[in-house]
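During the reporting period the student researcher (J.K.) took over the structure-prediction task from the postdoctoral fellow and processed the backlog of single-chain submissions. One of the processed entries is reproduced below for the supervisory committee.
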Amino acid sequence: MTTIINLTVPPDEFPLGSIFESFSGVDIELERVIPTNHALVPYFWVWGVDTDAIADAFEGEPAIRAIELVDTVKDGGLFRSEWNTDVEGVLKGITQTRLVLLSATGSEERWEFEFRTQDHEGMTEFQNYCADNEIPITITRVYTIAEMQVGTQYRLTPPQEEALVTAFDAGYFDKPRESTLGEIARNLGITRQALSERLRRGHRNLIANTLTHRRRER
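J.K. obtained the following structure tokens:
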């Protein structure tokens, strides 16, 4: 049975977490994870910092071979990283087990990962790897694809869910609006652009796993 697993690790347990030592108030969100020749080449967004200063923040990180700036937007940028998966850590644990990484977001507080696995053995392998390498992980949610499809889960990452609920409670979706993106972003401690992106992706996931799913069932 296909299972979705959400878990967290401390911010310094993932290679990109070294950025938090140099910058505060930064958010990172993986855009894509592509398996190629047994390596991971993820695209990731960095929000809340000058993109020109990003590369220096990763100097000396053994798990990162190279960082390349792909595109820039207001308050952030899209990067691509090539990993050195010979270095022990969360990244190597992912590549050596049968987990599929669906999403990952990082902040000064923690990294939040979402994995898919065909059976419990994949998660057990990852947990054993982390235990052997003294990597602290906290499982926050486990659910099946069947549960997701009937509406109890919508493939929202915790930051997306927090953004949507906070915006709803603040009256952002009301007419007239009772709050602005800037006000909600300040309340969450993130940039306006980061909030806008979380709302966009959250809406996309909600639609993909509710409206379009029911349409496919007809």
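The committee noted the following: The radius of gyration is 18 Å.
J.K. will present the remaining backlog at the next meeting.
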